[in-house]
Specification:
- The protein is an alpha+beta fold.
- Helix content is about 20%, strand content about 30%.
- The strands form 7 sheets. Strands 6, 7, 8, 9, 11, 12, 14, 15, 19 and 20 form a 10-stranded antiparallel β-sheet that branches.
- It is globular, with a radius of gyration of 27 Å.
- Bound molecules: (2R,3S,4R,5S)-2-(hydroxymethyl)piperidine-3,4,5-triol (DGJ).
- (2R,3S,4R,5S)-2-(hydroxymethyl)piperidine-3,4,5-triol binds next to loops.
């Protein structure tokens, strides 16, 4: 039983293998959080929430005048704006009479087997979970707030979402609808977050949570490169294997906010959900509004345990379809090899060389359709360019298949070029504000995904292509952010719904396409990793991590990504040197080793490789396939950070089988250093009393030695060397 209801104390205690999350209905019917942290024996933890002194100008509801009981002090699970909670709030309700506020008060609760789902939105799923639904109702109006909690015991994972149900006879407006308020125990906390830009995604930063709001967010219409919708709130001295850490991931790909701040009682509250900027959603009489899901994993032992729980949960209970746990085909993508400058013969010649080395899938990237010889035209016209393809798409797919390879293709469904037949026929399909010319970005506009006719048009075009040839893979790209956020299809008073409806529409199309073509592997992309989030992973089990495939820059990018997203979801390719993003030259082996800790593929003109280089690729493919299970499903440990430490100019990470029988450690030197002293990497997850060998060595090592002293490492004498250490039982 993961959820324990105690009617005497009026508590609901959500328990997982190592954590505990307690809710309580307080004396005034408020749903509060009394505790979230390490698992303990049951008690009513309410004492931890009580305010110690007066409320410093914070009014008191329920005739509790001049006491510590205030909406500004209690640990509400849903924090209403406009009601005297002056902290970070989650829900803003504009009633039909114009008043702003609500007082959600306990009505009922039920516990169900299995995990709830959310209408129209991605969410974790599975029978290996339990659901708690606590229903609250405004004290005045028939507005209900259904608070959903999903509990996955084995992953220490708790999910949350709110459904607002308007049972009044008139419309109400949500001017803010975040998914979660989380009130942490007293203490001082840091926030780790992952920021970036195109070709530099998920760069780790750490900051103290004090009395000013710390906020990661997007107002770009996509989760974006700038901030990832995932943060870790932790003890100020927490590290990889020490300290308390709360991982908070939003299962959403649009505008979001995750913020934290200490209040005047020195307590930290974290809120997460849809960004309130330009958000105003009408909920008509009898209608509901669903907030996106937030996924929480607590660890008492620092970041690594949190990471591994997220990895397992995302792999098994968020990703879907036949590829979620299958070995993905090793692919070659032609983008960096040719950009727009290709024809069928060129692609087939690349595929031929690749097939001889063991590559299994050829992906034709941008430029195969409409009038698309550069990025200035063609988006929206998803008709194969038979001149460039020197025949039909089916014919090209057959030529690739004849080489023993699968064939894949690129789409960017959500965008349109002004210079396209689709835009000329339907300018109203693009987001645009009345009287203003929409802004261009990469010479393209964004389609109005709120419209059913746009989605139908796209589905029909995409389905026609996918049915016309033997296609096994689709890369779904998105290369600009939203401006001119106005839908010609919606009345003036509903324009505040467009950002969220855009995501709902995109998710609906993704659901339709991916469910109609279950045998196709889908990879999500947005100028590299600009939409790498749990929302997209529900539809597509891998994401192109970054347009920057330089092995050294990738150390930080993949390091940051690894905090929450599993290796199996990270698109990682070997590309050419000098690198196209930063001109760096790195050894091919280092490029391969780094790409192993992702999906491993190639993105270069293989025809231009020397026979020596081709042999190295052939070797890598064999090695990667042998190590695949270990890499993709092992527990993941960040051993030495790529941000540098006092005594190392190299970084290291590891994947290890949970039973400790086998591990793989990768080291990469990112800066040269003369006359280095002996260097060691301490390994994790082995069995202390077991004997191991490294890369088949004669010498045997005790597990405890490898974990306490470490592997003695060495590097070849050239720039950016890298080594793999395969640890097996002796
Ligand atoms: C951006 C992607 O990240 C690239 O990999 C490539 O697909 C281009 N778009 C194509 O336009």
């Amino acid at each position: 039983m993961a959820i324990i209801r105690n009617d005497t104390d009026k508590t609901f205690t959500l328990t997982t293998k190592g954590t505990m999350y307690q809710l309580k209905i307080d004396d005034f019917g408020q749903l509060i959080n009394t505790y979230y942290g390490e698992k303990m024996d049951y008690m009513d933890m309410n004492y931890a929430t009580e305010a110690d002194w007066g409320t410093s100008f914070s009014p008191n509801p329920f005739e509790k005048d001049d006491t510590g009981y205030s909406y500004n002090n209690i640990h509400q699970e849903i924090a209403l704006s406009g009601m005297g909670d002056f902290r970070l709030t989650t829900m803003g309700v504009r009633n039909a009479d114009g008043s702003y506020g609500a007082e959600p008060t306990f009505v009922s609760a039920k516990i169900e087997k299995g995990k709830y789902s959310i209408k129209g939105l991605p969410a974790f799923y599975g029978d290996n979970a339990e659901t708690l639904v606590v229903t609250l109702k405004d004290k005045v109006h028939d507005i209900y707030f259904h608070m959903y909690y999903g509990v996955f015991e084995e992953y220490d994972l708790i999910t949350r979402s709110v459904v607002v149900e308007n049972k009044t006879n008139e419309s109400i407006h949500l001017e803010k609808a975040l998914s979660m308020a989380l009130n942490l125990p007293c203490g001082s906390y840091d926030m780790l977050y992952f920021h970036g830009r195109h070709t530099r995604e998920r760069i780790l930063e750490r900051t103290r949570i004090n009395h000013a709001k710390v906020c990661v967010e997007s107002v770009r219409g996509a989760s974006s490169h700038m901030h990832n919708p995932f943060v870790i709130v932790c003890d100020k001295d927490a590290g990889e294997s020490n300290g308390r850490a709360w991982g908070i991931a939003l299962v959403y790909s649009g505008n979001f906010e995750i913020s934290a701040m200490k209040n005047l009682q020195e307590k930290t509250r974290v809120v997460a959900g849809i960004n309130p900027e330009n958000f105003n959603f009408e909920v008509g009489a009898g209608e509901t509004f669903e907030t996106p899901e937030v996924a929480l994993v607590f660890s008492k032992n620092g970041f690594a345990d949190m990471t591994n729980n997220f990895h397992s949960a995302i792999r098994n209970n968020l990703c879907r379809g036949k590829f979620k746990n299958a070995r993905r085909p090793i692919l070659i993508n032609n983008w960096e090899g040719t950009y727009f400058d290709f024809n069928a013969d060129k692609l087939v010649s690349m595929a031929k060389d690749a097939s001889e080395l063991g590559v299994e899938l050829f992906v034709m990237d941008d430029g195969w359709f409409g009038k698309r010889d550069n990025d200035r035209s063609g988006l929206g016209d998803w008709t194969p360019n038979e001149k460039k393809l020197q025949g039909t798409l089916a014919n090209l797919a057959n030529r690739i298949n004849d080489l023993g390879m699968k064939f894949g293709i690129w789409f960017e469904p959500e965008c349109v070029s002004p210079d396209s037949d689709l835009y000329r026929a339907h300018p109203e399909y693009a987001l645009a504000m009345p009287g203003r010319k929409p802004q261009l970005s990469r010479h393209q506009y964004v389609l109005d995904m709120t419209r059913a006719d746009v989605r139908d048009n796209l589905f029909n075009q995409i389905a026609t292509v996918l049915r016309s040839a033997n296609i096994s893979y689709v890369k779904w790209d998105f290369n600009r952010h939203l401006t001119d956020v106005y839908s010609a299809n919606l009345p003036a008073e509903k324009q505040g719904e467009v950002y969220h409806r855009y995501m709902l529409g995109t998710y609906e199309l993704l659901e339709r396409v991916t469910q109609s073509f279950p045998d196709i592997l889908f990879e999500s992309c947005s100028g590299g990793g600009g939409r790498f989030d749990c929302g997209m992973l529900y539809y597509m089990p891998q994401v192109w991590t970054s347009d920057n495939a330089d092995a050294i820059d990738r150390l930080k990018i993949q390091y940051g990504t690894s905090f929450v997203y599993p290796v199996s979801t990270m698109g990682a390719h070997v590309s050419v040197c000098p690198n196209h993003s930063n001109a760096r030259v790195t050894p091919l082996r280092t490029r391969g080793n780094v790409a192993y800790f992702g999906t491993y593929g190639l993105e270069l003109d293989i025809n231009k490789m020397s026979s020596e280089e081709k042999q190295e690729i052939k070797r890598q493919i064999v090695e990667f396939k042998e190590l695949y299970e270990l890499i993709q499903r092992g527990d993941y440990y960040r051993l030495i950070s790529p941000y540098g430490t006092e005594d190392s100019l190299f970084c290291a990470w590891e994947t290890v089988k949970r039973d400790g029988s086998e591990a793989l450690v990768c080291t990469v030197r990112y800066e040269s250093d003369a006359a280095t002293a002996p260097e060691f990497v301490k390994v994790k997850g082995l069995v202390p009393s077991k004997w191991y060998k490294i890369n088949g060595s004669e010498q045997k090592y005790l597990g405890s030695a490898l974990m306490n002293i470490g592997i003695k490492i060495d590097f070849d004498f050239f720039t950016y060397p890298s080594r793999l250490y395969h640890i097996t039982e002796a």
